[in-house]
Amino acid sequence: MSTYQHPYKEADFVIRYLLAFDEFCTAEHLDDLNSDFVKQVLSEAEKYAVNHLLDLNQYGDQHPPILAQEQVTETVGFARAYRQFVDQGWPSLSASEEYGGQGLPNLVSVACNEIWQSSNLAFSLCPLLGQGAITAIQQHGSDWLKQQFLAKLVSGKWTGTMNLTEASAGSDLAAITTRAESAGEHYKLHGQKVFITWGDHQMAENIIHLVLARLPNSPAGVKGLSLFVVPKFLLDTQGEPSIKNDLRCLSLEHKLGIHASPTCVMSYGNNEGAIGYLVGKEHSGLRYMFSMMNHARQSVGVQGLGISECAFQGALHYATSRIQGSDAAGNKLTIASYGDVRRMLMLMKSGTEAMRALCYFSALIDDQKNAAIKQHKASEEIAGFDASIGFLTPIVKGWCTELAQELVSLAMQVYGGAGYVEETGVAQHVRDARILTIYEGTTGIQALDFSIRKTLLDGGAQAEHFFSKIHQTIALLATLKGSDNLHLSLSSALDDAQNAVKWLTENPQHANSVAANYLQLWGYLMGGWLMAKSFIVAQSQLQNKASDKAYLQAKLMTCKFYTEHFLVRTKACLASISAGGDTIMSLTEQQFFSHVN
Amino acid sequence: MKVLVTVKRVIDYNVKVRVKADKSGVDLNNVKMSMNPFCEIAVEEGIRLKEAGIATEVVAVSVGPKACQEQLRTALALGADRAIQVEAEQGLESLNVAKLLAKIVEIEAPSLVILGKQAIDTDNNQTGQMLAALTGMAQGTFASNIEINGEKALVTREVDGGLETLELAMPIIATTDLRLNEPRYASLPNIMKAKRKPLEVKTADELGVSIKEHTKIISVAPPTERKAGVKVADVAELVDKLRNEAKVI
Questions:
Q1: Is the CB of B30 less than 8 angstroms away from the CB of A8?
Q2: H/E element holding B153?
Q3: Fewer beta carbons within 10 angstroms: which end of chain B, N or C?
Q4: Option in B30, B70, B73 nearest A547 (CB)
Q5: How far apart are CA A211 and CA A230, in angstroms?
Q6: Per-residue pLDDT tens digits for B87-101
Q7: What CA–CA distance (Å, rounded) separates B88 from B68?
Q8: What is the pLDDT of residues A184-195, one digit of tens each?
Q9: CA distances for B92 relative to A240, A295, B11, B204, B217, angstroms
Q10: Which residues, other chains included, contact A106 with Cβ-Cβ below 8 Å and sequence gap of 6+?
């Protein structure tokens, strides 16, 4: 059984103090918004999640959706939970008010997503994909598409999916073969897509598939892909679902984790062809997909945070109640009394706090960008925010999801043998978390994007941008009493990062081999920077006689621990980066078999 | 018809309650606070009466420090039309709360006042009854059903022997039992709307009520921890222990 509570003080600390959300609201004239309001929204989100999603998590794991008579039926109870989700208005949170959304900042949406993801990762994927479909249609769709589909997607009455992958086209989308041909006002699609999350279910009246396909005589490669809206049910003249489109789920994957999320093989156009509507212009599909990519990838990073938090809380309850051994006086001890278990708890605590700071920090930059657009600020300013978002996205996705593997695994370690037994629930977290480094672009893809497109391509400009911010924090820390030489540790990690950028710039031909370490180095550094900023904030609150000493002092120690145990990993990363790719690439493929042949 | 519902800010039911070191009370510093679950039922009943077209306005009122505005905002997000906070220190005794509420009842003149039958922090189960006495209104406590028929109200009460239904002349005071309804969650659009709903603050002075303490807390102690049990060899030993040690037979 999961025992999850929303870490409301932590969320409030990050939003209200670390990110100074109230100042942002005042500066951007978001008069109705403030941290108190966000706190209230999160408290209602927790109530919903704890009462509707949490109990279904283990049940869904054991009772996955079923495919029968060409349709997928989701786990019993999910439809009710989804209905409640829609009734409470959660799908519309950050969508534009024009289409019935609440127009709330991305930061609020991310903080709520964390709650859904901690409570039930498999469920949370369904609305997450809907958000992607909304963005695609809103940003690139025609007025007709918007009018037909947006309001129903925003309200959650209909759900959305993303169809990119095919059996032979995974990380390489150039290999996509699904065909689309013009048929008057619409197009007809033929082809097969795999790994389509929530590709079919009965929770909503209609499912809107966004499908990448190739038009006849289109340019080769990714430049020849177009994006289509393909509804499960075609709409009648009233805009209501009527006849079934020529598409269906062929089979469901049997997966390691997220069992309750139906992963479908989708077949389009078995007969006359699935009717689809072009989004934007022909041959621009991948560009449109990329405009959703930052958001989708960051959301997966937040999933890493969500599942780590939930696993951590379970381990914490176990460690503080499981009795093993006694002290010299014969008093029974919980396993949390032992240094090694404490170390694991601190790793989980400091790791999740650093992840949360990074995820929320990145979300707020998106809001700053949107505010700048709204106020018609200079295009350089908007481009600057865009560049920062682009830079942070692979870190949020690649680092948080990799760190999540370590943290959920530690949670299981705390449980010992009991954790390896399914009953305690931590095993499910370990299995569920494993997908996170794979979907929405593997860690390898994130690392390549980060080292080549986000570092080398702009000549290290964004890297410099964050270096200067970190420098400011170091300078501030150096003047702070009782900072325990944190500034020296952060400064040393910053040196490592600067050396890594320098090495990469001088040896771009090694980028592929060193990218993973380069990405992780930045993750530990950014986490360390935000923890250092948290330290400064917490200490100033303590000096101002803030009342919640227990929380704030724990925060100081957690920041210190992060520095001692995570930030130091930049050293190992740099050592591996500097070793370059020669050894990595030195064996022939045959040599890999030399120990068995 | 106007309905007044009362809301108390209490320690969240998930929080493990700790007694202060000086035993003067429960430690409420920096712990999670929520709306008393019985008050949630009161708010829900008010909103349902409005949805059924019986009530025209639902007013939520809370007595406490500024922080209790958080719970009033929740009541507004759930569907109350406006809110009143009566500024007072945390943990006022029941009679003082009832006196302040009586003044609000005098000003607002509701046809129905719904309170939680008790709050989960002190479990006093007094305020509703005291308010009835102070206002002279009829009372239906521990309600599991409330039916309004014009000038009369039928209140079904959960009593020891089963259910008791009273016919009361309006205006009345009702206190909620657990089975009255199942409270809803606030929807996101309603949380947004609640930001613009009016929340008025009044003080005891303005209401002309002087706060007097009639009781004094001498000491608050946690329940004694359960001691480990013992295994008995046979029934004879069990009977012996029950008779001579526990002295229950």
A1: no
A2: strand B152-159
A3: C
A4: B30
A5: 7
A6: 999 889 999 999 999
A7: 10
A8: 999 999 999 999
A9: 57, 49, 15, 12, 12
A10: A94, A363, A364, A366, A367, A370
